[in-house]
Amino acid sequence: YVGRHYAGHFFLTIRYPEKRAALERFLAATDAEAQRAFLAESGATLLFVPAGHDPSRVAALPGVRPLVAESVGTLFAVDTLAIQRPVESSDAG
Fold it and tell me: What's the gap between Cα 5 and its chain centre?
């Protein structure tokens, strides 16, 4: 898959520990808007969610779609235009 990554292999990523920590916070987040903002800022076009994290929360984000799901995790495509739009709250008043 060709795409832009945020944190890839540790020896190929500048500031890997910092980026890996931010990615772990993203994966643990329960706020969809915070997750969307992280993806929008990162500019990543691919996102790998390792086993042990809930891929359904990521799949619910606008502009994110699963490409491949395996026992080790799920690879998602990120539409960088769609992810720019804020997540609409389900609270309609």
Answer: 10
Task: Report the distance separating Cα 86 and Cα 36, nearest Å.
Answer: 7
Task: Return the pLDDT at 12.
Answer: 79
- Cα separation, 58 vs 67, in Å, equals 12
Give residue for tokens 């395996």. Answer: 70
Domain ranges of the chain: 16-84
Amino acid identity for residue 38 in this structure:
F
Rg value, the chain, Cα: 13
* 19, 13 contact by CB (below 8 A): yes
* CB atoms closer than 10 angstroms to residue 44: 21
Predicted local confidence at residue 31, as pLDDT: 92
Per-run averaged pLDDT (10 residues), the chain, 93 residues: 72 87 93 92 91 93 94 94 76 48
